């Protein structure tokens, strides 16, 4: 255990220095201050070397504070606050033999809300990829195998480094939930569209590369213009209504259709999600998220409305932090509305996010819960 105060003060000072550079320093000094985060991890790069072309280290630090209050389904009021190192990751990427890439990333925070403990927790990702510019008429072809980030839903396609809200939406996390399955993924571009197809192990008991003893799931994704469609089919073994234990996906099948567009300082995201759980009940929802730069590239306002529904009581309050503070009783309908302000010191590489969200959770027997959660977060990566 340790105190996070010195770390937070140091990071705050660094963020302030970027802010002052942007307001007071000449343009070339401001550029060099931000370029430091871009280049600090670049150890070696030589495209002419036939053996090793590039060696890069990278990492991210995300700290946040949350305060939540509301009424749980049992009628009890709750009122809690939390601090958390949300993500602390470090990794390395090696490009070699012209077409291969080895990339690994470690999670270095073992605690959780109000439990700050540093140390290697597990591998976030670990992949070996083969890349070629042109193959059979397809461009930017990449074949990767290993422990990978699974994407289904618009918010999961955006890295946690670049999401505009402190936490992804409740329904977005329900379908995605930070899954890291072992699998083979193929991606390529043609006709102006990006195609992705993969096969994943459903095993959920590994901190590194998983095995293939439990079953397989199949994924297809297509992106074109501002559209993104995802579909997952889980070849799950169900006996007497009970699925194989430790299935990582928790869905028989799941789908998402999203559209995102920009116009001037506006950016708007629409996302609909629908799926069937292992017990046969269905879960569905939608997200609408507009954002607008009040000060171009610096100060951004973000709004988000989310609806989630279920055949049965399969939904909870938002995990961080209303679910932590309230009881764990589930419901069948969840509404949330989020409003936030983000300040970018060096784009997404150095920023502060603030947000407040109001949500309700209803149960089919008439019980309900509600919560208001306030967040503030520091996000940095290199």
Strand content: over 45%
Derived structural class: mainly beta
How is the largest sheet built, in terms of strand order? Answer: 2-3-4-5-6-7-8-9-10-13-14-15-16-17-18-19
CATH 4th-level superfamily: Porin
Measured as a percent range, the helix fraction is: 10-25%
Please count the beta strands (DSSP E, at least 2 residues each): 19
Large-scale geometry: globular
What number of structural domains do the residues give? Answer: 1
Q: Give the rounded overall mean pLDDT.
A: 91
- CATH class annotation: Mainly Beta
Through-space gap between termini: 26 Å
Largest sheet: 16 strands, antiparallel, barrel
Radius of gyration: 22 Å
What letter string, H or E per element, gives the SSE order?
A: HHEEEEEEHHEEEEEEEEEEHEEE
Look up the CATH topology: Porin
Show unreliable segments: 1-29
Architecture in CATH?
Beta Barrel
Number of helices: 5
Which SSEs are present, and which pair or pack?
Blueprint: H1 5-24, H2 27-39, E1 42-45, E2 52-71, E3 77-96, E4 100-109, E5 118-135, E6 138-147, H3 154-157, H4 170-176, E7 182-190, E8 193-201, E9 216-224, E10 227-234, E11 238-239, E12 242-243, E13 251-263, E14 266-277, E15 282-295, E16 299-310, H5 319-325, E17 333-344, E18 350-362, E19 368-381
Antiparallel strand pairs: 1-2, 2-3, 2-19, 3-4, 4-5, 5-6, 6-7, 7-8, 8-9, 9-10, 10-13, 11-12, 13-14, 14-15, 15-16, 16-17, 17-18, 18-19
List the keywords.
mainly beta, globular, 382 residues, Porin, disordered N terminus, 19 strands
């Amino acid at each position: 255990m340790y105190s996070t105060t010195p770390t937070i003060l140091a990071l705050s000072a660094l963020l302030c220095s970027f802010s002052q550079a942007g307001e007071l320093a000449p343009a070339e000094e401001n550029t060099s201050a931000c370029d430091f985060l871009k280049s600090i991890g670049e150890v070696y790069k030589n495209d002419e070397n036939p053996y090793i072309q590039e060696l890069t280290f990278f990492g991210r630090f995300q700290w946040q504070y949350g305060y939540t209050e509301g009424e749980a389904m049992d009628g009890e009021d709750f009122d809690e606050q939390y601090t958390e190192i949300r993500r602390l990751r470090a990794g390395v990427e090696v490009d070699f033999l012209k077409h291969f890439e080895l990339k690994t990333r470690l999670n270095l925070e073992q605690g959780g809300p109000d439990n700050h403990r540093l140390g290697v927790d597990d591998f976030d990702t670990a992949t070996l990829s083969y890349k070629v510019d042109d193959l059979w008429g397809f461009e930017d072809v990449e074949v990767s195998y290993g422990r990978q980030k699974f994407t289904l839903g618009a918010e999961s396609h955006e890295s946690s480094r670049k999401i505009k809200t402190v936490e992804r939406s409740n329904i977005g996390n329900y379908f995605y939930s930070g899954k890291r399955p072992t699998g083979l993924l193929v991606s390529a571009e043609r006709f102006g569209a990006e195609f992705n197809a993969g096969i994943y192990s459903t095993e959920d008991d590994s901190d590194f590369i998983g095995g293939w003893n439990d079953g397989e799931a199949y994924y297809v994704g297509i992106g074109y213009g501002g559209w993104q469609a995802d579909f997952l089919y889980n070849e799950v073994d169900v006996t007497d209504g009970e699925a194989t234990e430790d299935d990582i996906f928790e869905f028989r099948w799941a789908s998402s259709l999203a559209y995102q567009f920009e116009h001037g300082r506006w950016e708007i995201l629409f996302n609909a999600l629908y799926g069937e759980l292992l017990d046969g009940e269905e879960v569905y929802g939608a997200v609408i998220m507009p954002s607008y730069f009040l000060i171009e590239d610096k100060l951004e306002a973000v709004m988000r409305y989310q609806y989630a529904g279920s055949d049965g009581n399969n939904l909870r309050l938002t995990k961080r932090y209303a679910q932590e503070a309230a009881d764990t009783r589930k419901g069948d309908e969840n509404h949330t509305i989020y409003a936030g302000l983000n300040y970018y010191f060096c784009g997404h590489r150095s920023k502060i996010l603030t947000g407040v969200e109001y949500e309700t959770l209803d149960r089919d027997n008439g019980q309900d819960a509600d919560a208001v959660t306030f967040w503030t977060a520091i996000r940095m990566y290199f």
